[in-house]
Amino acid sequence: MKKTAVDNKKILKDLNAELKRLQAELVKANKIEGKDAYIDVKVKKNQARFQRVKQKGVEDKAFGKFYIEIDITAKQTDVFVPMSVASGKKAAGFMYQIEGTAEGSIVTTDIKVRGEGLSQVTVGTLLYAKIPAGKTASFQIQATIRGSFGKTYKIVFTRLNYKLQLADARYQQYLKEISSSSVKFG
User: Fold this and answer.
1) Per the database entry, which stretches of residues form a coiled coil (predicted)?
2) In contact, 42 and 123? CB cutoff 8 Å
3) Domain hosting residue 25, numbered range
4) Are residues 13 and 71 in the same domain?
5) Closest alpha carbon to 112 in 85, 76, 138
6) Tell me, what's the pLDDT at 89?
């Protein structure tokens, strides 16, 4: 009889571990689909255009100008979103990658935030937009990509990092990809 109780405890422990693993996978799957417990994200504007810069005596430069406006609503608690864009080398709010038919690089990025009840919080060198619970912030992101003529490019935001408390060591992550419009250079 004692052996059965010990066996049952081991089975119960294993089942609890499996349940926790499956719950973590479900949370991640929901975030990839855009279902997040703390924020709601909607793309309001998505524009892209090509610009040729003529240079005397050398090859012209090819640029893509991208503008994306994203509304982020804090659902149940205040949310802190870093007001920065990065390609994955450092922690930032909007993590991006350039997708296209040739190599390209970000030349400039500008991010502005508007909304009722918002405030800006500085922690060290990082700027955060504090979105109060129930309020919406409109993030306006402008980026310029330098690329090759005849090639097509777009920016893909692969995740959005945010915090519920500034003292949190780790970021919460919104994992649904946000893609800009594609633009052909030339």
Assistant:
1) 5-32
2) no
3) 1-32
4) no
5) 138
6) 63
